[in-house]
Amino acid sequence: xxxxxxxxxxxxxxRQIQDKLKLIDIAIELLDARVPLSSRNPMVDEILGGKPxxxxxxxxxxxxxxxxxxxxxxxxxEGHEVISVDSSTGTxxxxxxxxxxxILREKIxxxxxxxxxxxxxxxxxxGIPNVGKSTLINRLAGxxxxxxxxxxGVTKGQQWIKVGTEMELLDTPGILWPKFEDMxxxxxxxxxxxxxxxxxNIEDIAFFAVRDLADRYxxxxxxxxxxxxxxxxxxxxxxxxxxxxxxxxxxGCLLGGGRVDLEKTSGIILRExxxxxxxxxxxxxxxxxxxxxxxxNGERSRE
Length: 303
Ligand code: G4P
Known about the structure:
- This protein is α/β, with parallel strands linked by helices and 303 residues long.
- Helices cover 40% and strands 11% of the residues.
- The longest helix is centred in the N-terminal third of the chain and has 15 residues, at 7-21.
- Bound molecules: guanosine-5',3'-tetraphosphate.
- Guanosine-5',3'-tetraphosphate is lined by residues 58-59, 61-62, 86-88, 127, 129-135, 149-150, 193.
- Residues 58-59, 61-62, 86-88, 127, 129-135, 149-150, 193 line the site of guanosine-5',3'-tetraphosphate (G4P).
């Protein structure tokens, strides 16, 4: 579900999370490993304050493993504890409670030294819509729980979900908004499917995706759609459209008179991209590089 965020919603969402923070020991900040910055709330540091935090890069099964390692190094350099997981299969998810206890070890040791038996660590998962909060909660809980998440401003009774014997999670995650002001963020989130086509034009999203893939993942794009040669000039919009038309022809997306149905073609490109059919792809890298259009996190590694 795509939430229409208005200033009032944001204020309410922020307040709701801050109310929940009072109940917990640690926040689990969930990001999409393919777009760790674009899937990050711009005010997350302010919202979480000094609360201990574990950053979890989710959907790592869809992300480029080399770049995920770079992101892990980046967040560690920023002073965070971080782990990459795949909540859909559960890969590495069981390490989350272990890491949470590790982050809180001083507090736990203090309690033990006073003869207090520490209670289960209490956590809250926070993240933007579609990043996988409910999937992760279900994984951690080890059974399926119905969660009605994406409704900022809706108050519900809080319940704790047991994660093994040493951790408890609030059943409703904290829902944050992404950084809308930045067009690039919008397109990257749309490429992952976190923002739906109703919000941005589907052909624009596919155009952006094809240009980015031709630049950074040409072999994957070429192989998937049996393309001929890469565009000579990525700045030339006609060349990108030519590539999209080539893809459309390969997939039989034709209108009368031999014209290519670009809308249908765009749907196919995005569906296959989001499903991981082009391989494991990451849309932003932590290392600033000289880039095509002043992108803050672009990478130029056309093989
Ligand atoms: P949310 O609560 O943060 O809003 O996200 P949710 O768990 O609903 O997950 C959003 C989509 O992402 C779901 O797909 C879910 O299966 C998928 N997902 C979550 N974690 C992972 C992961 O680690 N790897 C992969 N590959 N997918 C993951 P969906 O039900 O198909 O929803 P949609 O694609 O129709 O939006």
